[in-house]
Amino acid sequence: MNINVAESAGFCFGVNRAVNMVYSLINDNKKVCTFGPIIHNMEMVRELEEKGCVAVDSVEDVPQDATLVIRSHGVPLEIMNEINRSGIACEDATCPFVKKIHNIVNQESGEGRTVFVAGNKNHPEVQGIVSHCSGEIYTFNNNDELLEIANNILLEKNRPISVVAQTTFDTKEWKKCLKTVKKVYTNSKIFDTICNATSVRQNEAQQIAEKSDLMIVIGDRHSSNTGKLFDICKRKCDKTFLIETAQELDMNVLRNADSIGVTAGASTPARIIKEVLDKMSEETKSSVTNENEESFEALLEESLKNLNTNERVKGTVVSIDPTAVYVDVGRKQTGFIPADELSNDPTVNPEDVVKVGDELELLIMKTNDQEGTIMLSKRRVDAQKGWEELEEKAESKEVLTGKVTAVVKGGLSLVYNNVRIFVPASQATVSRNDSLEDLVGKEVQFRLIEVSQRGRRRQAVASIRSVLMDEINKKRDEFWQNVEIGKEYTGVVRSIENYGAFVDLGGVSGMIHISELSWQRVKHPSEVVKVGDEVKVYIKDINEETHKISLGYKDPDANPWEILKRDFPVDTVVKAKIVGITDFGAFANIIPGVDGLIHISQIANKRIDKPSDILKVGEEVEAKITAIDFEKKRVSLSMRALLPQEEAKKEDKEEVVASVEPEETKAEEAPAEETTAE
Ligand code: SF4
């Protein structure tokens, strides 16, 4: 027994694309639903349901947080608008061939032409096509229905008419209808929109059926294209059977057939076809020739073998989705550019590279006659042009601008005019400590180091560092020409040591000593600045020989002794916080950077044994400034001066001057004054 399997059996390009879209969302753990069953195959629909993917009939039924997938034959415009208005996450898997028909009818009706659609008016694809039409439109399912329209609806003979067909319309019937249109209407435009995959599948099925004793058509009974396939085969082979799964295959009917033909609808999964073939070969003890089985398994790859590769064509962008750009190349097949063939920059979105209506020069990568598709590349054409330009610039040492796309082994990859250029790590940044990752996605200036070609292998190497060093050297020269003591600069803290912070002033580095960082005492520079901070500094000192620069950082306006002079004269009553207690008194912070001493005799209006009997660290007290020594930087405070006079009189009056010097120093000096007071 000879079993002949149609090469075109199974998923077409559009269905494959839609099913892949659903599986890819499921694999990303997304909640998925489809507008109607994703394909007309209950087996597959059940399989998807088990994975949580449900089919809905209206926008309202879309579950919360679900991504809605539009199936390959699309939805009417009103539904698409409703989806957009609802804000539902949506992935549009409408086949580009169907979208092409939407565009045609939209344009033709927009120009005032009456549109005729050959197709089943109840099929969602036809309903979608009709919805894109803004003027008069008629649908017919066969030549008889067309004749009825022509005879009963009295359209003038020279009425401008545009005719399209449902992608799965019967090719034989289409030819009949076209004859009628041409005969009846003198001003007609015909768009042959029957999908190539459909006509190839139908022709092949017919040819196989002609030579077979028995024909098996595998597919869902609700699938329009499977139904048509069955009708075509039945016309040529009486014993044609339609089955949905391997279980439906009645082996008794096969036994007397010498040659059996097998085909399948566009929505029949490869798995089901294989199960049918396995059952046939097992039970008949004959085998589907390995050749056939292999060719079926490898169908896609085989059919994508190069036919017109390396040919350049011009095309117009007709639609864009996240995975591909669809292009009209003026042939019956629809061209598509996979997203990774659009640009050498993997980070860009297709919408950022091309727009609908753009004219592109493209390279044919692969053609697939079964599916009627041409795979194209834009980036290869662009890269070729870019390379030619790069070769011209190789010797010039010109500074060019490109975009860093990735960190790669040993350096960076950047893209200039669609050509990938390698930047060794040593040539990517000024300092080894600078991050390469930070450059990814950024535009950078670079200079070519090497542009070479050995056979088909091309290599371009560049240096970003060379351009950066030029800038730094230029800034250095400018700096040394203009620098003077007292001049102010804005710099960036590059590193921090225990003794100070190093600041980049634009190619030249200076140091702020720790003592210069704050008016208050700090233990480590990191208390005041951190690496990357932008700081305002002034030149304190320059060593012309060593080119060492000392920087000042403290803001003179923030000098606390100046603030004290201006805002806190003697006799001012202040709220001060106790920051330290000794036997001879307590230190209290008046403003940041200035502490005053409240001598033991000035704490209360009676004699006390020790300051800690009355005060504790952290407490806020009210005191009067009784004396300031700006030279020695000492402030005396008195709480007693604010107490009632009669009681205060009983105590000795004493003025004690305090200091903001380190506590050890205060401790040494203050007792002497306390002794004087007593
Ligand atoms: S049959 Fe053609 S038009 Fe329809 S989904 Fe498949 S590839 Fe697209």
Report a brief summary of the structure.
Helix 4 packs parallel to helix 5.
Describe this structure in words.
This protein is of the alpha/beta class. The chain folds into 6 domains: 1-95 and 195-288, 3-Layer(aba) Sandwich (Cobalt-precorrin-4 Transmethylase, domain 1), CATH 3.40.1010.20; 96-194, 4-hydroxy-3-methylbut-2-enyl diphosphate reductase, catalytic domain (Cobalt-precorrin-4 Transmethylase, domain 1); 312-377, OB fold (Dihydrolipoamide Acetyltransferase, E2P), CATH 2.40.50.140; 385-460, Beta Barrel (OB fold (Dihydrolipoamide Acetyltransferase, E2P)), CATH 2.40.50; 483-558, Beta Barrel (OB fold (Dihydrolipoamide Acetyltransferase, E2P)); 560-677, OB fold (Dihydrolipoamide Acetyltransferase, E2P), CATH 2.40.50. It has 20 helices and 32 strands. A 5-stranded mixed beta barrel has the order 13-14-15-17-16. The chain has a 5-stranded antiparallel beta sheet with strand order 20-19-18-21-22. It has a 5-stranded mixed beta barrel with strand order 23-24-25-27-26. The protein starts with a strand and ends with a helix. Residues 286-308 and 651-678 have low confidence and may be disordered. The site of iron/sulfur cluster (SF4) has 14 residues, from helix 1, helix 4 and helix 8.
